[in-house]
Amino acid sequence: MSQVVFSGLRSLRIQAQRNFGIAAPALNKVSDPIQQLFLQKVQEYKSKSSGGKLVDATPEIQREMKTELDRVAKQYGGGEGVDMTKFPDFKFEEPKVDPINAA
């Protein structure tokens, strides 16, 4: 019986070490310099981004984006004053069926 208890304690100790190893990066204590650099860049990007606009966009890039959005809107039925984010309204009409004369 003591062998079963020691075996259970050993597996608990291993499980506790595994859980601790997984939880450590979540506490923002990253020991890997590449991961730390990645986190810094993500935080920098988050501080620069605002309102869904492009980060560090030049006027040329903004002009090109507007041209592409206008082209896509025209291609898919959008235009001046059309809300492309609204779900479309579907109208299904009952088809007209000719009666079959069984006589």
Automatic annotation (TrEMBL):
GO terms for molecular function: proton transmembrane transporter activity. Gene3D superfamilies: Mitochondrial ATP synthase-coupling factor 6. Its main location: mitochondrion. Keywords: CF(0), Hydrogen ion transport, Ion transport, Membrane, Mitochondrion, Mitochondrion inner membrane, Transport. GO terms for cellular component: mitochondrial inner membrane; proton-transporting ATP synthase complex. The keyword Ion transport applies. It is found in: Mitochondrion inner membrane. The keyword Phosphoprotein does not apply. GO terms for biological process: proton motive force-driven ATP synthesis. Belongs to the eukaryotic ATPase subunit F6 family. This is ATPase subunit F6.
